[in-house]
Amino acid sequence: MAPTRDQLLSTAHAFLASLPEHYRLLSPNVTVKMGPDSLGIPDKKGREELREFVAPLAASLKNLKVWVKEGTEPIIDTQARKVVIQAKSYAETVIGEYANEFVFILTTNESGDLLDEYVELVDSNYAKNFFERPQAANW
């Protein structure tokens, strides 16, 4: 039986609230795809590979908050066990405020409590401009 809409939405909100320490919500063999492709970030397979990739960035983001963008509603497909969320973020860094926008495509396991896959699409223009700041070279 597919998870309910409420189960999927609860898992999606827990995912956003737990970023960047979201590993407890990921299945052991989770697949993570980050994009757009123009960023050149390879897919990550499994919690440990993701942790190795995220840890340095997570350490640089203080007081990270991620939430559903105001004026949008998550799209939920219970049969496919998918939730699509347009989100906003805010964090403090040593080179200034980081406030980006994302689309997350989350696919849960059959019980709806862990993510088997997530796709994270970032506002690449904002990210590029942020990380090209002169101060970012020493970050």
Let me know the number of strands.
Answer: 8
Described by the principal axes of the CA atoms, the overall outline is: globular
Main pleated sheet: 8 strands, mixed
The CATH topology is given as Nuclear Transport Factor 2, Chain: A
Strand content: 35-45%
**CATH architecture label:** Roll
H/E series: HEEHEEEEEEH
How many domains make up the coordinates? Answer: 1
Estimate the mean pLDDT confidence.
92
How many distinct helices?
3
Pathway: Secondary metabolite biosynthesis
How is this structure best described in words?
Pathway: Secondary metabolite biosynthesis. Strand 1 and strand 2 (44-45) form a beta hairpin. The protein starts with a helix and ends in an 8-residue tail after the last helix. Strands 1, 2, 3, 4, 5, 6, 7 and 8 form an eight-stranded mixed beta sheet that branches. By secondary structure, the chain is α+β, with helices and mostly antiparallel strands. Helix content is 26%, strand content 38%. The chain has a single domain (5-138), classed as Nuclear Transport Factor 2, Chain: A.
Outline the secondary-structure elements:
Layout: H1 5-18, E1 26-35, E2 44-45, H2 47-60, E3 62-68, E4 75-77, E5 82-93, E6 96-98, E7 101-108, E8 115-122, H3 124-131
